[in-house]
Amino acid sequence: MSTELTFSQVDPYAGLKAAAGIGRADILATMKTANIRGRGGAGFPVSVKWNLAAAAVGPEKFIVCNADEGEPGTFKDRLVLSEHADLVFDGMTIAAIAAGAQKGILYLRGEYVYMLNDLETVLARRREDGMLGQNSAGRIGFDFDVEIRLGSGAYVCGEETALIESLEGHRGEPRNRPPFPVDTGYLGRPTVVNNVETLAWAACILARGAEWFNRIGTEQSAGPKLLSISGDCENPGVYEFPLGVSITEVLKVVGAEDAKAVQIGGASGQCVPAGNFERKIAFEDVATGGSIIVFGPGRDMLDVARNFMEFFVDESCGQCTPCREGNEKLLEGIEMLAAGTCSMKYLRELCSLGKTMQVASKCGLGQSSPNAFLSIVEHFPDEILGRAEGTVA
Amino acid sequence: MLVSNRNRLDRELDVLIDKCGRQRTALMPILQAVQRKYGFIRNFAMQKIADALSIHPVEVHGVVTFYSFLSEKPRGRFIIRLCRTISCEMAGKDRVAAQLETELGIKFGETTVDKRFTLEWANCMGLCDQGPAMLVNDTHYTRVTPQRVLEILEECRSRLSPHAMQGAEEEHLV
After folding, report:
1. Is residue A392 predicted with pLDDT exceeding 80?
2. Do both A201 and A62 map to the same domain?
3. Which residue range(s) make up the domain with A283?
């Protein structure tokens, strides 16, 4: 782990200029060699997504940067956008060259509206410098520009199809997939939706070379990753680690070696107890979009589970039944556990409900919302069972 | 609403809609602009926007009620959103919340009688490393303590002229 982020060492425009010089096929080849997977959480291979969009046929194509960072405990994109916005726009422009897109949209969450003016200033400068607009980055006939659109406080809009719905002026309710956005996205056109961090890494890869990126991390999880670390630790903040790093190592760096558990991947991620801290942060082990929340020795895990379930009850879009009703039931179960009125039999039923939600919900929100509940029940049964009203573990 | 006020609103909305465009994709930007200017989106505005975009008013209403930053009911001049998600909770948001309620004499979800302040919960606002975090309209505050609450409220009050919200059944005077 280095104290300085790679993003601070890569010059703005460097990746884009390199990309503009080599063109579409070589950009796609570079991304394939780098083996980069999406940094938003799902970990879809970037080269595959860009290839699909490049191959898709449509009168126009779009690049959407997903800056609707809403997962509890994630704030890395806030840092990237406020300090390295050029890399993000470089990445969007590179993706546009690769996919053959003419327009980019940055979907900024409503909570980050205070960044809007600075981002517009960056865009204006990029237009002046010829990086956007007619013949962007010096490529004749490549006219690409970026527009910033704001969200209005809906977590579910971080899901790519819900985000597109929101851009189109609808309620942020996820669509059925397939068709995928690379084929039928914004306004029914081929659309690449990438996370802020993914696009910034794309710019770094073009500037530094695919081999540099690929050498870091593990075979299935190449490259460095930004982690947003908060909770019971001495030095919360944004850190850069190579993927494959163990939880123990991370906790050592942030000053939280006495942690009792960590929540990896936010409310929709999983809770890892101290006994499993040798596990690795990587797509093949414990995956995360960047959120790591540390729980110190004194934390009541039932309070944690309650907080997460309240979050999901509030943020479920209400479109599909497993998610809309299931989250309510799990929260009710937590209240019963707290009051000491939840039987083991009923708890098992709730766990079975959670597993049903994981397979039956329409989008990632409902599919992952029971994770926190299930992992806390699995790892801390003695802490949550057998309570009398008003007691804590 | 007074006819004169309604006519004025009608004209202002026209300007706003023209700025954003009259296609469906402009709906969110229009609603966000109306919310920003007036503090809420009244039925009249929803009908007007629906007409301009050639969609059913229910479509507009559906969108307004979906997003937590859009409101069909009048809200305060300052909307205070305190983050209630786990990192801010562990950092002590409950005590900040209690102090806010005491200072303003309202509960979360309510607006003060003088229409100056609305208290709302927010879900994770991406300031987890600096909790408890709070948004007051577009400004963010970090590491908020119960002690700082009054200072922040006074800062808001000082931005309003003494008569700004007198008889303020109507729009915000931004």
Report:
1. no
2. yes
3. 224-295
pLDDT of residue B163: 57
For chain A, what is the mean pLDDT? Answer: 95
Contact: B85, A155; criterion CB under 8 Å: no
Q: Which residues on A lie below 8 Å from B127 (Cβ)?
A: 75, 78
Architecture of domain B3-66: Orthogonal Bundle (1.10)
Query: In this structure, what token pair is assigned to residue A380?
Result: 């801390």
Nearest-neighbour CA in chain A from B130: distance (Å): 8
ipTM greater than cut 0.90: yes
Q: Are residues A160 and A255 in the same domain?
A: no
pLDDT tens, residue by residue, A285-341: 999 999 999 999 999 999 999 999 999 999 999 999 999 999 999 999 999 999 999
Interface residues of B toward A, Cβ cutoff 8 Å, are 24-29, 31-32, 35, 53, 62-63, 66-70, 84-87, 89-90, 122-131, 135, 138-140
Do both A228 and A103 map to the same domain?
no
Distances from the Cα of A245 to the Cαs of A67, A189, A236, B174, in angstroms?
A: 25, 39, 17, 51
Do residue A113 and residue B138 have CB atoms under 8 angstroms apart? Answer: yes
Q: Look at the domain B78-173 and name its fold.
A: Glutaredoxin (3.40.30)
Neighbour tally for B169: CB within 10 Å: 9
Nearest chain A CA: its distance from B102 CA (Å)? 23
What are the tens digits of pLDDT across the range A221-258?
999 999 999 999 999 999 999 999 999 999 999 999 99
Q: Are residues A234 and A175 in the same domain?
A: no
Identify the domain boundary among A237, A264, A295: A295
DSSP string across A325-373: HHHHHHHHHHHHHHHT---HHHHHHHHHHHHHHHHH-SSHHHHHTHHHH
Q: Is A219 among the domain residues?
A: no
The answer to whether A284 and A244 have CB atoms below 8 angstroms apart is: no
| Helices and strands, counts by H and E, chain B | 7, 4
Tell whether the model's pLDDT for residue A4 goes beyond 90. Answer: no
